[in-house]
Structures are given as structure tokens and as C-alpha cells.
Amino acid sequence: MGSGGGKHLPAAIAVTQVRCYGRLMQFDRIAAAVTLTAALAIGASMLRAEAAVVVPLGAVPVSTTILPLDRGDPALSSIGALKFLGAVQIRSSDPLFGGISGLRSGPGNTMLAVTDTGNWLAFATTENRNRLTGIANAVLVPILGADGKPAPTKAAGDAEALEWDPATGTATIVYEQDHRLVHFAGIDPARPATLGQSPQRTERLTAMTGWTLNGGGEAMAVLPGGTRIVMSESARRDDGAITALVTRDGKTFEIGVEGVDGHSPTDAIALDDHRILVLHRRFTVMMGQGAAVTLVDLAPLFSGTPPATLPAKILAQWQPPVTLDNMEGLAVRKIGGRTFLYVISDNNLNSIQRTILMKFELETP
Predict the structure, then answer these.
(1) Cis bond before residue 365 (omega within 30° of 0)
(2) How buried is residue 129: exposed, middle or buried, by Cβ count under 10 Å (0-12/13-18/19+)?
(3) Can you say whether the dihedral through the CA atoms of 136, 6, 173, 232 is positive or negative?
(4) What percent of the chain has pLDDT above 90?
(5) Rounded mean pLDDT, 275-301
(6) Phytase-like domain location, by residue (predicted)?
(7) Closest Cα partner for 60 from 115, 131, 3, 2?
């Protein structure tokens, strides 16, 4: 989460972030988008069809720089069970670009993300022989509330996790600070106008009310059968396990999930019908940056007496000098029997941090 990363930064930097968020949330991008659309419509009527230029709703300029896995070790090509397939640093002149906290993949090379400043971000990866080389067609649109307006404050728009089904367009966003799950329908990043709609409903879980403001729902995964798990960034059980809420067959119960020492969960995604991948990050002044990916089997939850804590297997763990930043988003793309992982960082809209997108191939766990 953006604020989660910020709270581990020196106080002066954290205060700067808060002021920055307060200023940026005053932008009314919906009004700007409507004005742009109207202008294009008028312009189109005045120009010949072959001369018309269509600008995507909410389009933002981006540039990318290709990064190695480790500048000091050009031969390094894997981290644990993850084979490296490219990394890029993403920059934009748009002041609202960044803060990416949840990521999912769609048809072709499309990607859908949410930011902790209350925006949808859609883009396409550019690749060459399965290696990541950049991104294109970036679109940034405010996430609307039930009132049809963007979140009025950073606290109200602190989106931290995303689940999205490209086949149906259904999407769920987990928010912290104002802990809730918000459900949308018909979301399609290939049609940016679908991002400018109000949610279908808002869900509040009683167990979330005890989670701290900046330690709420940070990672979420939904299995193909509908079982959902939401993990708290900072809430821990007595045995030190991550506190998670599982919703199955309309009932919600608490479970523990084994974590990674010194790290917090920041995203999760279903790998198959019973296993999930969990992204963890370490981002503190004292311990520095770190990231890890674990594999958790949810099958025991389907038994008559589920265990108090689900074990996790570490598939990969890395820290500098290996490339990383405040890693917060995780997506999976399956092609021809191969499983690819995309991991993206939240730059907290801070000039000393970076938005980095990395691609890996998951070797059989």
C-alpha cells in the first residue's frame, strides 16, 4: 500500500507524501475527461474521417527504461523458482501516475491496476519473444464511489487490492483506512469508458473493523470456485501468522497464513483451483527493501476441521542489489502451459522511489 510504504519512510518524506496526496486528490479527472470527449466529438464533426485523431479517455504519457535483474551480476537469470524475463522502470509526466497497489492481467497483453490514490490504471505490456520491454496505451481514470464521484480524500480512496474477471468484467477492490470491499460490473480496460462507472455494491466485513487504518486489507485472491481470501497487511494472530478472512459459501471466517519474516503481504492471486501465490514486501528504514513470493495451499480449508494456520512455501526472495522497489502488485498470465508472473511497485508518488514492472516465468513449484 502507498501509505504502508510511506509510514516506514523518514518523517519528513512521509509528511511530504501526505501533502502531495491532499493536493492531487483535488483534481477532477472525470470533468476533464468529459470535456475532452466533448471536444473530440465536435472536432470529429469538423474533420474528414480519415483525418480524425481519437485520444483514449484518460490517456497518460509514459516512458520506460529497461532494467537488468542485477547490474552487478549480468549472469543472474533466476531468483528461486522465478526465471527472469525482463524489468522496466515506468515514468510519466502526469502527476497522478503511480501509487500502484493491485494488479491483474487480461486478454492479450492488457493489464488492469488500482492505485492507492483512488484511480484505475489500464495499460498493455510490450514484449519481444516473451521478454518484457515496456508498456503502452496507459489510461488513468478515477475510481468512482456510489455517489458517482471520485473519492474526496486519500483515506477514502486508498485502494489496495484488486480482483478482476476479464470474462465477465466483474471486479472487486479492497480499501483500507475506510475498510471495505467494493464491487463493480462490466469493467473492461480495452474500453476506458467502462472504468468511469459507479460500483454495484459495497461490502463491509465486521472482522475488518479491528484492523488498523494503515494495516487493513492489502492482498486478495479468489479461487475459480469462488472462495475468497483477504489478508491484512499488519494484523497478526497469536502465533505470528498473517490474519486473513476467508469467505466461502456466503460465510466468512478468520484463518492464519504463514508469512515471511520482516515482510508484509501486499498482493495475492489464484494459481489454480486450490493454491494461491502471495507477494510480500519489506520496506523499512532499518532493514531496507525486500520482496518474496510464497505458495499457499487453501485445500485444507475445504476439510471439516481447517487448520488454524496455513503453511506457506517460499518460491523466491530477493533484495538489493537485485532490482526491486516497494513491490505491491502481482498478476499471472498463462500461455501454452507456461505461467508468467508480473510484479509491480508502488512509488508512493515520491521522487526517490520508482515504478518498476518485472516479469518472471514460474518454474514448476
Answers:
(1) no
(2) exposed
(3) positive
(4) 78
(5) 94
(6) 96-348
(7) 115
Task: Please check whether residue 310 is in contact with residue 297, taking contact to mean a CB–CB distance below 8 angstroms.
Answer: yes
pLDDT band (50, 70, 90) for residue 364: confident
Measure the CA–CA gap between 187 and 167, rounded to whole angstroms. Answer: 10
CB atoms within 10 A of CB 202: 13
Where are the domains positioned within the chain?
Answer: 2-362
C-alpha span between 363 and 88 (Å, rounded) = 22
Give the whole-angstrom CA distance, residue 319 versus residue 306.
34
Residue 117's nearest CA partner among 2, 267, 283, 266 is 2
326 closest CA partner among 115, 154, 124:
115
- Fill in the amino acid letter for 294: T
pLDDT in tens, 246-267: 999 999 999 999 999 999 999 9
Which stretch of DSSP H or E encloses residue 182?
strand 180-184
Q: Tens digits of per-residue pLDDT, 151-206?
A: 999 999 999 999 999 999 999 999 999 999 999 999 999 999 999 999 999 999 99
Give how far Cα 133 sits from Cα of 78, 88, 126, 248, Å: 18, 7, 6, 39
123, 138 Cβ separation under 8 angstroms: yes
Query: Which residue(s) pair with 171 in the sheet?
Result: 164, 184
Under a CB-based contact definition with an 8 Å cutoff, are residues 358 and 87 in contact? yes
Q: How far, in Å, CA of 208 to CA of 179, rounded? A: 6
Sheet holding 131-142, edge to edge: 100-105, 110-115, 119-128, 131-142
Residue 131 has pLDDT above 60, yes or no: yes
Reply yes or no on domain 2-362 having CATH 2.115.10: yes
Q: Give the span between the Cα atoms of 324 and 84, in whole angstroms.
A: 13
Strand, coil or helix: what is 205? coil
What's the pLDDT at 272? 97
What is residue 344's predicted lDDT score, i.e. its pLDDT? 98
